[in-house]
Amino acid sequence: MLRLTRRSEYGLMALAYLASRPREYCSVREIVEELKLPKRLLAEVLKDLSRAGTVEATRGPGGGYRLVRSAEELPLARVVEILEGPVAMTDCMAQTCELEASCIIQTGIGRVTSSIRNVLEDMTVAELLPASSEAPLAV
Amino acid sequence: MLRLTRRSEYGLMALAYLASRPREYCSVREIVEELKLPKRLLAEVLKDLSRAGTVEATRGPGGGYRLVRSAEELPLARVVEILEGPVAMTDCMAQTCELEASCIIQTGIGRVTSSIRNVLEDMTVAELLPASSEAPLAV
DNA sequence: TCGAAAAGCACCGAAATAGTGCTAAAATAC
DNA sequence: GTATTTTAGCACTATTTCGGTGCTTTTCGA
C-alpha cells in the first residue's frame, strides 16, 4: 500500500528527534525512551544511517548519535534510500523487468515514479517537525 | 520500498490494455496472452476491479471485461486503493497509531502522504499509455 | 446442451519484514 | 586498569504479506 517500512518510519522519527537537539549526542536508550520504539531495532537503523554518513556516532558514556549536517540538508528520499533501497514503484523502475516487451505502461509508471521521488527529494527532515519544535537552538 | 504490489501493477497494465481497446470486451485469456501475466492472478485482480465498479464484465463466449468509463476519468489512486487499500505511507496515516503521543513526525508524514496521494490522484490510466496507442478510436 | 468465461472460496509456499540475542570494540569515569 | 556505558557486528527467529494456484459454480451464447 505504498507504505514505508518500520525501519524508515523509526529512522525518520529518530532523525527528527536528533534535529530537535542539534549538535547534542543522543544515545539509543534516550531516543527509544522518548519515542517509545523497540530498542534493538532502532539501534540497527541508526547504525545503518551512521554507516551511510547521515549521522555520526561516539561510543562510551555521554556518547550516542547526532546529525552530521543540518536537518534542512537532509531530504527524506536520502533516508528512505539508505533504509530500504531505491525509491521505485515497481521492479521495472529499480532495475530490469522481464516483461519489458509486453509492458505497455513502462514509461507511464516511470513518470509517476519520478514524481513521487521528487516529493521525497523536496521535503527534508527539518520539515517533519511541527513548527514549534523546529530549531530550538538549545545547545 | 514504496513499491506497488503486483496486484496494482498487473491491474494497471490490464486497465491500460482495456483503455487501448475502448468498448470492446476483452477476456482474461486474451489479456494475459497479450501482456504475459499469470492468468489466475489477473483474474482475481479484474474481479476486484469489477466489484469496485471500474470495469464491467459479461460472461460466456465473447465475454470479458471493459472499462465502465473512459480511462481519462480513472485516476491511478482509485485503482491502487481498490487493489491494495488506502494510500498511506504509515499505519498512522491509514488509521490510528499507538505511538500518537510520542510521534513527533505525525503532521510531517501527513503532508508527505497527501503529496503522494495527489500525484496518484492527478494521473490517470489514460496517461499511462504511450502517446501512440492512446485512444486509437478503433471500433 | 455444450463450451467459454467470470465469480466464489479456500488454500499454499516463499519472501520480506519486524524484532531479538549475544559478543566485541571503543570511550569514559573512577 | 577496571568497570561501565554505548556503539558495532553478526546471526538468527517469528510473523505477516504477497504472489500464485486449484477447484467448483454460475452465467451466457451458439
Which key terms come to mind for this protein?
homodimer; 139 residues; two-stranded antiparallel sheet; 6 helices; 2 strands; DNA-binding
Unreliable residue stretches of chain A: none
> Hey, roughly how much beta strand do the residues of chain A contain?
5-15%
CATH superfamily of chain A: Winged helix-like DNA-binding domain superfamily/Winged helix DNA-binding domain
Average pLDDT level of chain A: 90
As laid out across the biggest beta sheet of chain A, the strand order is: 1-2
Gyration radius of chain A (Cα, Å) is: 17 Å
Class inferred from helices and paired strands of chain A:
mainly alpha
Return the string of H and E elements of chain A.
HHHEEHHH
Helix content of chain A: 40-55%
Measure the end-to-end span of chain A.
40 Å
Account of the 3D structure:
The structure is a homodimer of 139-residue chains. With 139 residues, chain A is mainly alpha-helical. Chain A has one domain: Winged helix-like DNA-binding domain superfamily/Winged helix DNA-binding domain (Arc Repressor Mutant, subunit A, Orthogonal Bundle). A two-stranded antiparallel sheet of chain A has the order 1-2. In chain A, a hairpin with a 5-residue loop joins β1 and β2. The first copy, chain A, is elongated, with a radius of gyration of 17 Å. The termini of chain A are far apart. The relative contact order of chain A is 0.18. The structure holds a DNA duplex (30 and 30 nucleotides).
